[in-house]
Amino acid sequence: MQFLDKIFHLEDAHTNVKRELIAALTTFVSLSYILFVNPNILSAAGINKGAAFTVTAIATAIGCFLMGFIANYPIALAPTLGSAAFFSYNVVIGMHINWQTALASVLVASILFILITVLKLREKVVDAIPQDLKYAISAGIGLFIAFIGLQNGKLIVDNKSSLVGLGSFNNPAVWITLFGLILTVILMAAKVPGSIFIGMIVPAIFGMIIGQIPMPHGIVSGAPSIAPTFGQAVFHLKDINTPQLFMVVLTFLLVTFFDTAGTLIGMTQQAGMVDKNGKIPRIGKAFLSDSLAMVEGSVLGTAPLGTSVESSAGIAMGGRTGLTAIFVGILFLISMIFSPLLAVIPTTVTAPALIIVGVLMAGNLKYIHWDNFEIAFPSFLVVVGMPLTYSISDGLALGMIAYPITMIASKRYKEVSPMMYILFVIFVIFFLITNMG
Question: How far is CA 177 from CA 161, 206, 294, 342, 345, in A?
């Protein structure tokens, strides 16, 4: 234990091995769906689904090890669904680019990402964001996570007349979600240790008993080979030679830059890592970790890795150091042979955890200066923009564009740092690139 304390500084973070393990289990159960959803999305691009399953597990494990050992953060790095969807549907299907060349584009963007990180440009961007907007980012991610949870649990469904509406109580999935949510709320209110984790496992068992969640057909199975995808990004680097592909690289770079920056701010804020000056310790190491994770992910054969919002579930359970991330990585490696068991954990089971975490993260709203309109308006755009656009980077962009405008209008332009004006221009370009056509 002393050995682990020396590496991860558990005592300084007021945590212990048991708490970090429970946090890791909670993050893993919340995030395990990525093992099945990511291959489904990538298979639309023509990538072998079996290889994509194994690559997702290995790439996530390596990403978690990088974050744990380099940055000592309780945050998991995994392929993000937004980047996977952009990869398959926009780049491969929409632009008629083969998946091997698309992976090469991700690799080039990853290398540029490392360069930007080493030059400390990412740190400068995060440090330049005003504290009120940082609180808004954390709260906005909370609402986004809660919205995903409500959706996954079928409590909120799409509605042709009003975009969204309340789910049907005739759907058994709704009752499993409600059972898990009520149980978790009671456990949280009673301050029972491990309440979020218990609130996921018990509904899974309940679902099996009532016949709504299938029993596993087996326990152990061999992991499929990664041969179909491994190294394809490197072999096809020579294909990155047209203006269209340079634009694809730039888009991957921008989306992952703002996605990971926003999520890291939110997660570290939730974990109480931010100091009194609003600075995030070891943020440069965290950025280096996710940059390296993007490289290894693209070489193995998956869409860009990024900071996982599901890490917030583990942080809510007390995860405070990189040991949580290391445990998550180990669980993902083990999961490769236990895929039949993971298949019986539907999103309805993990939905209550995401809703509860959303509640906890929304607490940051109280720190925003709502009485100052010039600060309140951009903060509000960030908070509502993330769930309504279904994108962390788009919500962030809305607020960052509005902030200099409201500050100039209120004659407080001297309080806006030069970096914020630069970001204003970058975000306008970002919107033009990602939302045209």
Answer: 25, 11, 34, 18, 12
- Beta strand 163-166 with 77-79 is unpaired
Calpha distance 272→367 (Å, rounded): 14
Structure tokens at 375: 């600060």
Tokens of 151: 């959706």
- Write out the two tokens for 256: 């992952």
Element (H, E) at 387: helix 373-389
Q: DSSP letter at 416?
A: S
Backbone torsions φ then ψ of 79, nearest 5 degrees? -60, 135
Helix (H) or strand (E) holding 176: helix 172-189
CA distance linking residue 409 with residue 254, whole number of Å: 28
What's the rounded Cα separation, in Å, for the pair 307 and 264? 7
Is beta strand 163-166 parallel, antiparallel or unpaired with respect to 305-307? unpaired
Cα angle: 128, vertex 132, 138; to 5 degrees:
95
Tokens 């970058």 correspond to: 426
For residues 275 and 272, give the distance between their C-alpha atoms in angstroms, rounded to a whole number. 8
Here the tokens at position 33 are 């769906």
CA distances from 134 to 208, 234, 361, 380 (A): 41, 37, 12, 12
Please, are residues 27 and 313 in contact by the beta-carbon 8 Å criterion? Answer: yes
Q: Which residue has the tokens 């690799």?
A: 107
Contact status, residue 296 vs residue 62, Cβ threshold 8 Å = yes
Cα–Cα dist 215/52, whole Å: 24
Per-residue pLDDT for the chain (437 aa), expressed as one digit of tens each?
788 888 999 999 989 999 999 999 999 988 888 888 888 889 889 999 889 999 999 999 999 999 999 999 999 999 987 788 878 987 898 888 999 999 999 999 999 999 999 998 888 888 888 889 988 988 888 898 889 889 989 999 998 888 999 999 999 889 999 999 999 999 989 988 778 878 888 888 888 888 888 887 777 788 889 999 999 999 999 999 887 788 888 878 877 887 788 888 888 888 888 877 778 888 889 999 999 999 999 999 999 999 988 898 899 899 999 999 999 999 999 998 877 766 667 778 878 888 887 888 788 898 899 999 999 999 999 999 989 988 877 888 899 999 999 999 999 999 999 999 998 998 888 788 766 65
Residue 401, CA distances (Å) to 126, 240, 382, 388 in order: 15, 31, 10, 17
